[in-house]
Design a protein that fits this description.
- The chain is built from eight helices and seven strands, in the order E-E-H-E-H-E-H-H-E-H-E-H-H-E-H.
- The protein is α/β, with parallel strands linked by helices.
- The chain has one domain: Rossmann fold.
- Strand 1 and strand 2 form a beta hairpin.
- Helix 2 packs across helix 8, helix 3 packs across helix 4 and helix 4 runs parallel beside helix 5.
- The two termini are 33 Å apart.
Amino acid sequence: MFEAPSGKTNHNVSVSQPAMGLSTTFALGTTYFEGLSTWFQRPSRMTGRACDHRWMLIVVSGLPGTGKSALAERLGQELGAVVLSVDPIEAAMLESGIEHSFATGYAAYRIVSTIIEANLALGQTMIVDAVSGVAEAKAWWPTLAMEAGVSLAVIECICSDSGLHRSRLEARMRGLGSFPEPTWVDVERRREEWVPWVMPHLVVDAVRPLDVNVADALAYQAESADNKTPKGTSLP
């Protein structure tokens, strides 16, 4: 597989602002942020329409064991949206006899993005459940939303209690066959490699009840869909 700054807070949930100086690490920096003020008048590459807020792309990001899948699934139920998770797709490749490697993780992201692109063109809100920890992965989703002409909401899942985080990770049973489940050592390594999001995003903490996090995420999604700029972006 592909291997917070301070902000406004509400009930221990923060809407984080961009980390200064990090945008240069993203390949999308010049293509996504420059000229964004005219982006909403630009026809979509896929549909020929300007940005349509009736459907959108929602990215649920975070380290393994922080509650991404549970949150994404609940959002999908509440919104009638399609949820795509990267790990089960990579697991299907491994079950088909393909050897696990960086290439299978990369391919899983490509497959998810291709399905999302096709369904956004049909007017379907899409939710992606993926760690998206490195710069390349974080650049992928904003670029996809921009090209589709839809709004974007980014939600980062964390677990501020390391003991709870570890117990959640070690207790989960996902039924993904031969897919190599990450260990706590893997999570610690990914934490060190983690690149912060360079755009505003909602942060939800797994120490809080899932229902509370779902409610905050739905409110954030509604705000993102109503805004005249896609959530997760800021005009120059």
